[in-house]
Structures are given as C-alpha cells and as structure tokens.
C-alpha cells in the first residue's frame, strides 16, 4: 500500500498557512474576500487528502455523511435571509461543537483505558457539548421560536452549578475508573448545562454569547486534535490543534471586546441574568415629545449634517433598504449623511455593518463609536433608529445599571429624532434619559414605516 | 503520555499568539465576517470526524462517527457560504452604487 503521509502532511501545513492568511485578510474589506476563498480551497484540499490516510475504512458512510451534512449546510446558508445571519452563525457554530463532542465520544468508547486520551476527550466533550446545546438555544431565541429575554427562576444558579458539577464528576469517574458506563449521564448533564446557561442570557447580550460559543468550539476542536495526536493519528490532529486554537484565540478576543463595549464582565453576561427585571423607576424631568414625520423631514432637509444611529429595531423591521433610500434622498438635497455604529448594536458583533452593507451603504460612511463621538456636537440632526441602551445617557450617571457603558453621545447634537415602536424601555430595563431631553423628539412606529413616511415627506418638501 | 502531545502543546501556544495578533487588527466593520470566517475554520473538525469514522469498528462507534461527519460537514459548508455571502456585500468592485 502506498504511503501518502508526506502529501497529506504537506496539504495540512498548506491549509493552516491559508487559514492564518485568510483571517489576516479580514483586516480590510478589499482583501477579505480573496482571503476566505483561499482558505476555502485549502480546506477542500485538506478534506480530500484525508481520504488517503492509511487504513481508513467506512468510505461509504463517510461519503453519505459529507453529502448529507454538506448539502444541508450549503442549502440552508444559501437560502437564508441576511436578517437571519446571527442565528445562522450560531447554528453552524453549534454543529462544529457537536462534531467535536461526537469525536470525543467515539474516542472515549475506543480508548478509555489511556488516561491521557480519556481526560483530553472528556475536556473536549464538555466544551463541545456546552457549545452545541448553547448554540441551539441561542438559535431558538434569535429565530424568535423562544422568548428572547433572559429566563430566570428561583435557585437557578444553584441548579445550574449542580448540573455542571455532577456532569463533570461523571467525566472524572470515566477517566479514573477507565470505564464507559458513565458516559450517558455525563453527556446528558453537560448538554443540559449548555441549555441552562444560555436560558439565562437575554437578547442584547447575544453578541457576547455567539462570539463566546465560537471560541469554545475552537477550543473543543483543538482538544480533539490533541486526542488524535496522542492516538497516533497525528497528522489530522496537528491541523485541528492549530486551527482550533487559532479560532479559540480569535473568538476569545472578540468576546472580550464585546463585553468591554458594554462595560460588563463576561461573568456578568453569563451568570447575571441581565435584563430580566426592570430598574425601579427613577424620576426624570421632562416629558416625551412626539414629532410629525413631515416636520422631522423638513428639519433634516435643511440640515448640513445628519448622523443616523441604527439599532436592533432596524433589524427587526428589516428597514435597512428604506434607510439607505432616506440617506440617498437627503444627500440629493446636499445634506451630508453618516452612520454611527455602536459595537454591540444588534444581536451579533458587526450586525449593523452587515445589514447596511446589504442595503448598499458604502462602508466609508459607517463610523465607529470612537470616530463619531466627537462629531455629535456639530451635528444638526441625529436620527436614532430602533436603538435604545447604546444611546442612553443614563450610562454616565452613577448608580444606573448601565453606568460606565460606552455610548453614542447622540444627546449632544442639536436635534435628536428617535424612531421607536412604543414607549417601552430598552433591553436593560432602564428608562432612557435621552427621550426626555429638550432636544429630543419621538417618532413612534415601525422603523420601516416611519422611515418610509420620512422619505415621502422629503420628496414633497 | 507521548512526546507528540508536548509538540502539539507547543504548537498550540504559538497558534494562540498568532490568532491574537492577527485578529487584533480586524476593524469593527468586519466583526461579523471575522466571526463567521473563524466559524468556518473550526470546520477543520470534519477532517477529524472523517478519520474517526474511518477507523470506527462497532456499529455504535460508526453511528456516532457518522453524526460527527454530518455535523462537521454542515459546519464547514455553512460557515463558508455565510462568510462568502457577507463579504460579497462588502466588495466594492462588484457593486456600482446601489443595491447588490
């Protein structure tokens, strides 16, 4: 039998190089697409050469698995709407975690007697199980098949901790006794922990959570890689270690960035049950002042500068194309239009950027928090579309649950218009001081409908 | 414990630093494709799933191995297509002004 190892190893090395270059190319929108294409070709080659690994059997089953899984993934990712991207990212990430947990399960069944193998497999299985179960719950919440807010009940922390500890204990027993009898309760409890953990996490914390599960899957894949290296199936194992750790590091960094953008620790996001209860009402001076779309439109038409600050409300109403139309109509009247993007606006990191890109807004009109915050003071009109907590000046007030969160300083502009569905509070359950300020006017209604009437009013002005 | 494990650990440490360095340059604008792209890259788990199923002997191992391959294949294709779709929208050369 021919030994293909040099070819296989060579392709794996090449694949890892292109994975790193592919991620590096993400530094700029001009290179990113080529980068992911190169990584895609490298991945395809890596999968193909794996068939040449000596002693491999079950080719029929492998082919069926790839065709079924690959076909489903390809089809689903093609047909899904751009607005459903956060849950798609969650679900495909969960699949990776599930695959990692399943690989660990097979390794435990075949080689539980080797303590190194068993302990690494148990670690991979724990993380992979939490990732798949958690990602599925995140998917259900984002898809709207489950309530989006944090689900909190009495003694929940104790229950969650107990489930995790007992689950881990079955894992330790498996390693110590070198037996497979505890594997079923072990997997049931670790999967259950993934579900319980994510139930406690509400909608607006999703950017942190999705990014965290992504990092966890990477780490689970790397742990499986260690198992394969240990089991003398090293070639594939090394590739999994590098790619998995690469993703683990990238995902962890992104998770930290997201948590920092909310001025919360990752612990508080995971275990805080934030947004489940509302803040006790604090007295705010002033009142909510509605404005007619026609009046708002004419103020915008005569402005020099307009900044649009979108939030989750724009995504819910799928208003991004209307928003682009509005920006075009304003620019036709000589108004300069820019977009202010808060890092955690929406339900995944960079959510607003993707929606606006879909609508065809050029990305050099999109400004980060740091770039745009100095500019509000010289801006005539800020239009807030379905954003709440990320523009709430209460974040500057000591004692507010939002205190310390970096916000878009929209209240410093001359006029602020807020498109809002109703009079409710934001995700954090905190009353928004902005709405009561003298320079703020409310435009009530669905974002898409309100922006539509703004466009109509502009055309007639 | 084999010496290979220590080699793998060394590689893992280096990969962690590479990952950190590479990602810290990515702008907020591209956070979604970054996440989705790294999601695609951990699809390398499919390679491990193929090996594990390829050496599986008992029916239970084969069944779990098959699940691993199906999930790994979904991860890798879904992750790629989602990333490619998102990046296509950021591509200036393919778009002249209006909607894609």
Explain what this protein looks like in three dimensions.
The complex is a heterodimer of chains A (461) and B (100). Chain A has helices at 5-24, 29-50, 59-79, 85-111, 115-143, 156-177, 183-199, 206-230, 234-261, 266-271, 293-301, 312-316, 320-332, 351-359, 369-372, 447-460; strands at 305-310, 336-341, 366-368, 381-385, 415-420, 440-444. Chain A has 461 residues and is α/β, with parallel strands linked by helices. Chain A has 3 domains: 1-73; 80-271, no CATH class; 293-459, Rossmann fold, CATH 3.40.50.1220. Chain A has a 6-stranded parallel β-sheet. In chain A, strand 2 (336-341), helix 14 and strand 3 form a beta-alpha-beta unit. In chain A, helix 5 (115-143) packs parallel to helix 7, helix 8 runs antiparallel to helix 9 (234-261) and helix 11 packs across helix 16 (447-460). Chain B has helices at 3-23, 31-41, 45-54, 59-90. With 100 residues, chain B is mainly alpha-helical. The chains are: A alpha/beta (461), B mainly alpha (100). The interface between A and B is large, with 118 and 88 residues.
Structure at a glance:
The complex is a heterodimer of chains A (461) and B (100). Chain A is an alpha/beta fold and 461 residues long.
State which percent range the strand residues of chain A make up: 5-15%
The major pleated sheet of chain B works out as: none
Instruction: Say how many strands of chain A there are.
Output: 6
In DSSP terms (H or I, runs of 4 or more residues), the helix count of chain A works out at 16
Estimate the global geometry of chain A from the Cα principal axes. Answer: elongated
Order of helices and strands of chain B: HHHH
Average predicted local confidence, pLDDT of chain A: 90
């Amino acid at each position: 039998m021919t030994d293909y190892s040099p070819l296989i190893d060579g392709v794996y090395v090449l694949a890892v190089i292109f994975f790193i270059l592919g991620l590096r190319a993400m530094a700029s929108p001009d290179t990113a697409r080529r980068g992911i294409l190169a990584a895609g070709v490298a991945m395809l080659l890596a999968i193909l050469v794996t068939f040449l690994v000596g002693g491999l059997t079950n080719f029929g089953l492998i082919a069926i698995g790839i065709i079924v899984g690959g076909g489903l993934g390809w089809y689903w990712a093609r047909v899904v709407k751009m607005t459903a991207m956060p849950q798609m990212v969650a679900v495909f990430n969960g699949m990776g975690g599930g695959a990692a947990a399943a690989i660990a399960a097979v390794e435990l069944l075949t080689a539980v007697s080797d303590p190194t193998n068993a302990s690494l497999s148990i670690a991979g299985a724990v993380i992979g199980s939490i990732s798949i179960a958690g990602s599925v719950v995140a998917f259900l919440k984002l898809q709207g098949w489950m309530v989006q807010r944090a689900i909190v009940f009495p003694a929940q922390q104790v229950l969650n901790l107990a489930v995790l500890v007992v689950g881990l204990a079955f894992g330790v027993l498996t390693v110590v006794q070198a037996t497979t009898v505890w594997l079923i309760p072990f997997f049931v409890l670790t999967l259950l922990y993934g579900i319980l953990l994510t139930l406690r996490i509400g909608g607006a914390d999703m950017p942190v959570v999705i990014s965290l599960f992504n990092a966890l899957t990477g780490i689970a894949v790397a742990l499986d890689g260690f198992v394969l290296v240990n089991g003398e199936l090293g070639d594939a194992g090394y590739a999994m270690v590098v790619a998995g750790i690469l993703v683990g590091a990238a995902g962890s960094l992104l998770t930290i960035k997201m948590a920092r953008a909310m001025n919360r620790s990752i612990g508080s996001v995971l275990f805080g049950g934030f947004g489940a209860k509302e803040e006790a009402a604090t007295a705010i001076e002033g009142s909510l002042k509605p404005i007619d779309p026609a009046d708002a439109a004419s103020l915008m038409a005569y402005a020099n500068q307009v900044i649009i600050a979108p939030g989750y409300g724009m995504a819910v109403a799928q208003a991004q194309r209307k928003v682009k139309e509005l920006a075009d109509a304003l620019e036709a009247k000589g108004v300069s239009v820019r977009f202010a993007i808060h890092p955690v606006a929406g339900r995944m990191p960079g959510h607003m950027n993707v929606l606006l890109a879909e609508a065809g807004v050029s990305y050099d009109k999109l400004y980060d928090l740091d770039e745009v915050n100095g500019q509000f003071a010289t801006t005539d009109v800020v239009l807030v579309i379905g954003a709440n907590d990320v523009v709430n000046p209460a974040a500057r007030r000591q004692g507010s649950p939002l205190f310390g969160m970096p916000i878009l300083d929209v209240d410093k502009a001359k006029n602020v218009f807020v498109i809002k569905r109703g009079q409710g509070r934001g995700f954090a359950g905190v009353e928004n001081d902005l709405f009561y300020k003298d320079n703020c006017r409310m435009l009530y209604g669905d974002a898409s409908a309100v922006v539509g009437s703004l466009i109509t009013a502009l055309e007639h002005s | 414990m084999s010496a290979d494990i220590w080699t793998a650990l060394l590689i893992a440490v280096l990969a962690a630093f590479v990952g950190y360095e590479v990602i810290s340059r990515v702008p907020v604008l591209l956070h979604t494709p970054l996440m989705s792209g790294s999601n695609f890259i951990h699809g390398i788990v499919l390679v491990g799933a193929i090996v594990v199923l390829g050496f599986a002997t008992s029916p239970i191992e084969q069944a779990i191995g098959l699940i691993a391959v199906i999930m790994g294949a979904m991860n890798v294709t879904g992750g790629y297509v989602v990333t490619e779709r998102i990046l296509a929208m950021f591509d200036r050369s393919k778009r002249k002004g209006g909607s894609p």
